Amino acid sequence: MAVVETLLRAENDGTISFGNHKLAQKAKLEDFEHAGDLYKVKTYSTMTKLEKNGMFVYESVPGTSVLNLKEDENGVSFVVEGDEDAQITVGLQDDTEYEVFVNDASAGKMKTNMGGKLSVSVELAGVGEVSVKIVK
Question: Taking the complete model, does pTM exceed 0.90, yes or no?
Answer without folding.
Answer: yes
